[in-house]
Amino acid sequence: MAEEKKLFKVTIDNIAIEVEPGTSILNAARRIGGEVAPPAMCYYSTLKGSGGKCRTCLVEVAAGSTADQRPMPKLVASCRTNVMDGMIVKNVTSEKVLDARKGIVEFLLINHPLDCPICDQAGECSLQDLSYQHGTEGTRYEFKRRTFEKHDIGPYIQLHMTRCILCYRCVYVADQLTNRREHGILDRADHSEIATYIHKALENDFIGNVIDVCPVGALTDKTFRFKNRVWFLKPLDAHRNCLKCSGKVTLWNRGEEVFRVTARKDQWGEVKDFICNECRFEKKKTADWVIEGPTRIDRHSVISGNHYVDIVEPKEIMPEVMGGRNPKLLMDINQVSEVNRKDIDLSEIPGPAHSEDFEKENS
Amino acid sequence: MQALTSKAKVVGRKPMTFWEKLYIPVIAKGMGITFGHIFKKKATISYPEQTRTFSPVFRGVQVLNRDEEGRERCTACGLCAVACPAEAITMEAAERLPGEENLYKEEKYAARYEINMLRCIFCGLCEEACPKDAVYLSETLVPSNFNRESFVYGKKELLIPHPLEEPEAYAKARGQKRG
User: Fold this and answer.
1) Where are the alpha helices (DSSP H) in B37-70?
2) Fewer CB atoms < 10 Å away: N or C end of chain B?
């Protein structure tokens, strides 16, 4: 007998929604969308077992359920708490939650270096967004920030352990997507660090996805390192026939040059279709891909700055007015400028560019 | 109609008087005013030998700054370029190699940095955006030139002289207001 599935009615920030039993508060809030959805730094819907570590998604439960109306005594992590029928949840409407989140951001930033000007994640960093929305302007921390011995984890991935917030997402990626996990979190407390224990390169297929899931700039693409800032690149949806993965990616182009290939992220900054290492690191030519069109970027993101959609170019009237002649070009900036020269492809240098690359170019 | 300023003069359409019709005395009067200016204080100065003091908020040509040890401050973060309303700034970044620590302050630096002075409107937003105090607008004007190509300033033109190797040139480029 097919019994009608009973839906749980939850009220989040005074908005009621019916969800299936077993849904977490976070996912229920995401169903409503917008401001109501709590931010999440460690929870990742496509990774099993993620969540419950960063505490940014804390919410207040004003009433546990219809059966038990009592509020929950403490703020709960919404990614790990399932909804009950008649639950009343407060997120942005609760002073307590906003205050707690402010404290959590402060704790996350205690050991985080202020090197956003250098960091390749800047502009698409969850921690940047979070601290802009919920954090304070200054820091009260007066002590030295933790530092680590630098580990080289191969030609593809650059590890900056000082930036890590220990969300464990990369560990779950290695566990659930690759055939063998080579890295993990060593030591404990403020000594804990992502490492391979015995210095090894992370080269398993699909390991490149740790770059996309990392909410901060701890794991970044070495083939893209320092090449360009994300907001100067043009994201394009593209695909190719790949035997190992879906082949659906976002290309980050500047002109014809493909600077970086990433998986496509949804509105919560999460990847649904993980891509293989070959697509991510080896296919750096526009010819390898079938371009579908520009990626939709949120208008509030710095990446959409100076990128205009649906532009209507005005009709060029100069030749008409001047009797078929084009106006005389007094200077072609491409011939004068040393930056972004046509004959040099920065995207083809395997790692970050060095002074010698630029010296070579000068000759 | 109400006059817009108190200096407005109503043009008279009266016929000339006999004294005015004589012509020569009126010319002499006008010449008198002209010659009188010889003894008045001059409004101009002979630039570039003499220069005027600039206002403290004057915004001149950009300078790429160095720190006390003479290392370049710029990390090519691109914030000046994204803030620039005229899209005059472009750059290319590189990673610092071991042994170059005395040249560049941070791990990443601007291998190429260009400001197109033909586009620049001297609004000072690049200075405001810079998180490293690397770019600021100095008290110098952009020197004039005959060809357009010379107005695309690279690092050679923009970088401040080394504070330890050329302290005098450094102090001059740094200007008065930042003393």
Assistant:
1) none
2) N
d(CA A29, CA B126): 40
By C-alpha distance, which of B20, B24, B21 is closest to B32? B24
Determine contact: B112 vs chain A, CB below 8 A. Answer: yes
Kindly state the average pLDDT of the residues A102-122. Answer: 92
Domain count of chain B? Answer: 1
Closest-CA residue of chain A to B132: A117
Distance (Å, rounded) from C-alpha A247 to C-alpha A250?
A: 10
Q: Is residue B155 part of a domain?
A: yes
Task: Report the CATH number that the domain containing residue A197 is assigned in CATH.
Answer: 3.30.70.20
Our CA-based measurement puts residue B169 at a distance from the nearest CA of chain A, in whole angstroms, of 26
Answer whether A210's CB lies under 8 Å from A219's CB: yes
**Does residue A8 surpass a pLDDT of 50?**
yes
CB contact under 8 A, B94 and A353: yes
- Point out the least confidently predicted range of A96-110, A341-355, B53-67: A341-355
On chain B, the residues whose CB falls within 8 A of the CB of A122 are 77
Most confident of A59-63, A146-150, B1-5: A59-63
Residue-averaged pLDDT of chain A = 89
Judged by a CB distance cut-off of 8 A, whether residue A150 touches chain B is no
Cβ distance A357 to B131 less than 8 Å, yes or no, reads no
Q: How confident is the model at residue B179 (pLDDT cuts 50, 70, 90)?
A: very low
Please indicate whether, in this complex, the C-beta atoms of B154 and A330 are within 8 angstroms of each other. no
Contacts of A341 in chain B (CB under 8 A): none
Check if B95 contacts A (Cβ < 8 Å).
yes
- Cβ of A357 within 8 Å of Cβ of B94? The answer is yes
- Within 8 A of A217 by CB-CB distance, chain B residues are none
Residue A283's nearest CA partner among A233, A208, A359 is A208
* Inside any domain, residue A321: no
Mark whether A71 and A131 lie in a shared domain.
no
Can you give the pLDDT at residue B178?
Answer: 54
- Determine what percent of chain A falls in helix, strand and coil, rounding each to the nearest 5: 25, 15, 55
ipTM of the complex: 0.83
